[in-house]
Amino acid sequence: MYTLTVYSKVWVQLQNMIDFYEKKNNGLGNRFLKDYEVTIIKLKDSPYSYFNLKNNKRRIAFKVFQCMLIYEIKGITIEVQVLKDLRSKPNNY
Hints:
Strand content: 25-35%
Number of strands: 4
Protein backbone atom coordinates (compact mmCIF):
# COMPACT_ATOMS: atom_id res chain seq x y z
CA MET A 1 0.00 0.00 0.00
CA TYR A 2 1.24 3.47 -0.87
CA THR A 3 1.34 6.46 1.41
CA LEU A 4 0.30 9.82 0.03
CA THR A 5 2.05 13.15 0.56
CA VAL A 6 0.39 16.28 -0.79
CA TYR A 7 2.55 19.40 -1.13
CA SER A 8 1.22 22.43 0.76
CA LYS A 9 0.90 24.43 -2.46
CA VAL A 10 -1.52 21.78 -3.75
CA TRP A 11 -3.75 22.34 -0.71
CA VAL A 12 -3.72 26.08 -1.45
CA GLN A 13 -4.52 25.45 -5.13
CA LEU A 14 -7.29 23.04 -4.15
CA GLN A 15 -8.93 25.54 -1.80
CA ASN A 16 -8.66 28.31 -4.39
CA MET A 17 -10.33 26.15 -7.01
CA ILE A 18 -13.08 25.04 -4.62
CA ASP A 19 -13.78 28.71 -3.83
CA PHE A 20 -13.73 29.61 -7.55
CA TYR A 21 -16.24 26.91 -8.49
CA GLU A 22 -18.45 27.63 -5.48
CA LYS A 23 -18.68 31.29 -6.51
CA LYS A 24 -19.70 30.20 -10.02
CA ASN A 25 -22.52 28.00 -8.78
CA ASN A 26 -23.65 26.96 -5.32
CA GLY A 27 -22.58 23.34 -4.73
CA LEU A 28 -20.10 23.23 -7.61
CA GLY A 29 -17.17 23.58 -5.21
CA ASN A 30 -18.29 20.42 -3.41
CA ARG A 31 -18.58 18.59 -6.72
CA PHE A 32 -15.03 19.65 -7.55
CA LEU A 33 -13.79 18.40 -4.17
CA LYS A 34 -15.54 15.05 -4.74
CA ASP A 35 -13.85 14.74 -8.16
CA TYR A 36 -10.49 15.41 -6.46
CA GLU A 37 -11.17 12.76 -3.82
CA VAL A 38 -12.14 10.15 -6.43
CA THR A 39 -8.95 10.97 -8.36
CA ILE A 40 -6.84 10.49 -5.21
CA ILE A 41 -8.44 7.10 -4.56
CA LYS A 42 -7.70 5.97 -8.13
CA LEU A 43 -4.14 7.26 -7.81
CA LYS A 44 -3.48 5.36 -4.58
CA ASP A 45 -4.92 2.16 -6.06
CA SER A 46 -2.62 2.09 -9.09
CA PRO A 47 -0.11 4.94 -9.31
CA TYR A 48 1.88 3.41 -12.18
CA SER A 49 -1.18 3.27 -14.46
CA TYR A 50 -1.13 6.93 -15.45
CA PHE A 51 0.78 8.91 -18.06
CA ASN A 52 4.52 9.17 -17.47
CA LEU A 53 6.02 12.62 -17.98
CA LYS A 54 9.67 13.69 -17.84
CA ASN A 55 11.87 13.15 -14.77
CA ASN A 56 9.75 10.32 -13.27
CA LYS A 57 6.75 12.60 -12.86
CA ARG A 58 3.31 11.32 -13.82
CA ARG A 59 -0.11 12.84 -14.30
CA ILE A 60 -3.65 11.77 -13.62
CA ALA A 61 -6.65 13.64 -14.99
CA PHE A 62 -9.83 14.31 -13.06
CA LYS A 63 -12.91 12.56 -14.41
CA VAL A 64 -15.29 15.53 -14.49
CA PHE A 65 -13.35 18.78 -14.16
CA GLN A 66 -10.57 19.91 -16.48
CA CYS A 67 -7.76 19.39 -13.99
CA MET A 68 -4.92 17.02 -13.36
CA LEU A 69 -2.51 16.12 -10.62
CA ILE A 70 1.23 15.91 -11.23
CA TYR A 71 2.89 13.41 -8.93
CA GLU A 72 6.03 11.38 -8.39
CA ILE A 73 6.41 7.92 -6.91
CA LYS A 74 9.29 7.58 -4.46
CA GLY A 75 9.43 4.08 -3.02
CA ILE A 76 6.11 3.54 -1.28
CA THR A 77 5.27 7.25 -1.21
CA ILE A 78 3.23 9.11 -3.81
CA GLU A 79 4.09 12.82 -3.75
CA VAL A 80 1.34 14.99 -5.22
CA GLN A 81 3.23 18.08 -6.33
CA VAL A 82 0.90 20.14 -8.54
CA LEU A 83 -2.82 20.61 -9.09
CA LYS A 84 -3.10 21.88 -12.65
CA ASP A 85 -6.11 23.68 -14.08
CA LEU A 86 -6.30 22.61 -17.73
CA ARG A 87 -8.60 25.40 -18.81
CA SER A 88 -5.50 27.50 -19.54
CA LYS A 89 -1.97 26.58 -20.62
CA PRO A 90 -2.33 22.77 -20.18
CA ASN A 91 1.31 22.00 -21.05
CA ASN A 92 2.84 24.50 -18.63
CA TYR A 93 3.91 22.37 -15.66
